[in-house]
Design a protein that fits this description.
Has a glutathione-disulfide oxidoreductase activity in the presence of NADPH and glutathione reductase. Reduces low molecular weight disulfides and proteins. The chain is of the alpha+beta class. It has 4 helices and 4 strands. The chain has one domain (4-84): Glutaredoxin (3-Layer(aba) Sandwich). It has helices at 13-24, 39-49, 67-76, 78-83, and strands spanning 4-8, 31-34, 56-59, 62-65. It has a 4-stranded mixed β-sheet with strand order 2-1-3-4, sandwiched between helices. It is globular, with a radius of gyration of 12 Å. The termini are close together.
């Protein structure tokens, strides 16, 4: 099973959408890192991704990006391949 990590914040509709999309595929987010509760996590996320918006999603060692990227990968079929490892 592949590990899914998401940088998130409280009250983030795109984060909820990403989580629901993955849930509909039968996958759960293994680790949620709340950048609004820990400034060090925001710095870490920005260093890893170059972005300051959430969600920022990693599936295994693959950096997916945000919800729009996740959705685009889903529509293209690429997400299925990544989730199967």
């Amino acid at each position: 099973m592949v590990n899914i990590l998401m940088y998130t914040s409280n009250h983030c509709p795109y984060c909820s959408n990403a989580e629901q999309l993955l849930k509909n595929k039968g996958f759960a987010i293994d680790q949620k890192l709340y950048i609004d509760q820990d400034a060090d996590l925001l710095s870490e996320m920005m260093e890893k991704t170059g972005k300051r918006t959430v969600p920022q999603i990693f599936i295994g060692s693959i950096y997916v990006g945000g919800f729009d990227d996740l959705r685009r990968m889903d529509l293209s079929g690429e997400l299925e391949t990544i989730l199967k490892g």
